[in-house]
Structures are given as C-alpha cells and as structure tokens.
Amino acid sequence: MEEKGFLATIFDFSFTEFVTTKVIKFLLGLAMVVNVIFTIMFIVGGFSNSTLQGIVFLILSPVIYLILMLFSRIYLELIIVIFRIAENLIKIRENLGSQQSGAAGAPDA
C-alpha cells in the first residue's frame, strides 16, 4: 500500500490511512502553547486576587505546567497507541491474506 500525501489523506473518504499519526507532533506543540497560556492565566488570576496568592502561583507555575504537559503527553500517547494498534492489525490482516492465497495455490503433500 503506497503512502498518500497529507492532503490526500485528509480528503480520503475510504479512511484507509489515519491522519492522527501524521499530526500528533503538531498536537503536542499545540498542547504546549495552550498549557503555557493556561499557566499564565493561572498566574494573572492569582495576582488579581492578591499579591501573595500571585507570588505563590508564580512559584508553583512550573510544577503546574509540568503536570499539564504530563497529562497532555499521556493523552496523546494513548491516542497514538490506539492508531498504531489499528495500523498493525491491518498489516497482520494483509500478511495473513497473502499467506492464505499463497497456501491455496500450493499442492498438498
């Protein structure tokens, strides 16, 4: 099976190839940006309540960011594992199909 281009994969109505495995790196980058924005909003919200709360949130912000990134990474890894399982099952089915068709033409011993 030949590899399709990205745009061809997006508009593939037969769903023979997965887009998710091709955009997962972009999704991780997007998660990084969103988590940075969320962490900055967390700090700003702390300073808007009180200076002490803002300082505490500022000190805790690297830990909060790392926790958010950990959950983002785990979620994306779960998604990619599911898609890789599907891709490997397709390869196994293709290999079994070619072995069965080869065995059907072979004479019995």
General description of the model:
The protein is mostly helical and 109 residues long. It has one domain (6-99). The chain has helices at 6-10, 20-49, 51-105. It starts with 5 loop residues before the first helix and ends with a helix.
Strand residue content:
under 5%
* Main sheet overview: none
- What is the structural class? mainly alpha
Number of strands: 0
How many domains? The number is 1
What is the average per-residue confidence, as pLDDT, rounded to a whole number? 88
Number of helices: 3
User: What is the terminal-to-terminal distance?
Assistant: 33 Å
- Radius of gyration, CA atoms, in whole angstroms: 24 Å
Give the helices and strands as they follow along the chain: HHH
Q: Which regions have little confidence, pLDDT < 50, spanning 5+ residues?
A: none
Large-scale geometry: elongated
**Relative helix content:** over 70%
